[in-house]
Write a structure and sequence with these properties.
Helix content: 40-55%
Largest sheet: 9 strands, mixed
CATH superfamily of the largest domain: Spore Coat Polysaccharide Biosynthesis Protein SpsA, Chain A
Shape: globular
Number of helices: 11
Order of helices and strands: EEEHEHEHEEHEHEEHHEHHHH
CATH class of the largest domain: Alpha Beta
Strand content: 15-25%
Oligomer: single chain
Number of strands: 11
Number of domains: 2
CATH architecture of the largest domain: Alpha-Beta Complex
């Protein structure tokens, strides 16, 4: 379904916005209120309630009734399936030419959809990714992860970000989002710990689109605020889950070792050389120094932190990477030693 802009006369393709949610009615309300105020008018919102046990279903009924001018469809999973299975269900139910994705704890700026749609300047562009900004850190753990989802200036994208991206539906139907990920973190009562993300849910899609020869563009003025807050527990659970998911991604697509973890792996794997000749300590020391330099570079130039912020949070981030490394190595060993149900795919460039 397409509309024509009354201001410019341009065709406005229908955009389906897919939002998975579970037990977070309060943040979901802010997310949907922001979507109700978009400058782009031709869109539908598909909320996939992933087995919520709070008042999310009742809230969604009320929201739909109070916003008759917004096309909102509500789906429900029983039982909880996870983020990507929920997104994939939303994709299958979508009617739009384009499918945009947000997390339930994101607040989109009014021109968010308009900016995303404008970036599809040619049929070669398969997907676009926008800028995710973080709220002001309230503790050292949030400061350590500040800017993690930040993207560079306009141009070819080096990643997709699951909480702020838009993809042509035809490509999503061809590839879908990767469901071979590490399981979601759970609370003691069995409910999903929504404070833990970092599962790399969108990485498989990015790799498959690139291998197929499609273009992916960055749109830094398509902005969402990601209201994702951390405690020490949720941060390190995220590190562990992120490491496990990275190992599964490497295994599934026959990828080389992750670059963010490679210097640490080389450092620790070369330490036995010290027992041969002590002066060989320079080899693991070199790799460890390279790892520290990479973290510093990433913080200053990719995440956009100040020097002061980097120094203050560096020890926490170093611990984060070691927990991530532990999860990565343990999962990599498990995948190669034990049976698993991952369907492997060797990517070949078009």
């Amino acid at each position: 379904m397409k509309q024509v802009s009354p201001q410019t006369g341009d065709v406005m393709p229908l955009v389906s916005v897919v939002i998975p949610t579970c037990n977070r009615r309060a943040v979901l309300e802010r997310c949907l209120e922001a979507l109700a105020n978009q400058t782009y008018s031709n869109y539908e919102v598909i909320v996939v309630d992933d087995g919520s046990s709070d008042d999310t279903p009742q809230f969604l009924v009320r929201f739909v009734a109070e916003h008759p001018d917004v096309q909102v469809r509500c789906l429900r999973n029983e039982p909880n399936l996870g983020a990507n299975p929920s997104r994939n269900r939303g994709i299958r139910e979508s009617k739009g030419v384009l499918v945009a994705f947000e997390d339930d704890d994101c607040i989109a700026q009014p021109d968010w959809l308009e900016r995303l749609v404008c970036a599809f300047s040619s049929n070669k562009v398969a997907a676009v990714v926008g800028l995710v900004i973080s709220p002001k850190p309230t503790n050292i753990f949030e400061l350590a992860l500040k800017g993690t989802q930040r993207v560079p200036g306009p141009g070819p994208a080096d990643r997709l970000v699951g909480c702020n991206m838009c993809v042509r539906r035809t490509h999503l139907i061809e590839f879908f989002l990767d469901e071979d990920r590490a399981t979601q973190a759970r609370n003691p009562n069995g409910s999903v710990d929504m404070r833990v993300s970092g599962r790399g849910d969108e990485e498989g899609l990015y790799l498959m689109l690139c291998a197929a020869g499609y273009e992916i563009q960055t749109v830094p003025d398509a902005i969402v605020l990601h209201e994702h807050y951390y405690t020490g527990r949720s941060m390190f659970r995220q590190a562990l889950r992120g490491g496990r998911s990275a190992a599964r991604l490497v295994y599934k697509f026959y990828l080389p070792t992750r670059l963010d973890l490679l210097p640490f792996i080389l450092s620790y794997s070369t330490m036995p050389l010290i027992f041969v000749y002590q002066w060989l300590v320079i080899i693991p020391a070199f790799f460890f120094a390279a790892a520290l330099a990479a973290i510093t570079y990433n913080d200053l130039y990719r995440k956009g932190k100040t020097i002061s912020e980097t120094i203050r949070s560096f020890h926490v981030l170093l611990a984060y990477y070691h927990v991530r490394l532990f999860g990565y190595v343990m999962e990599a060993v498990r995948l190669r030693m034990l049976k698993n149900n991952i369907s492997r795919l060797r990517l070949q460039s078009a």
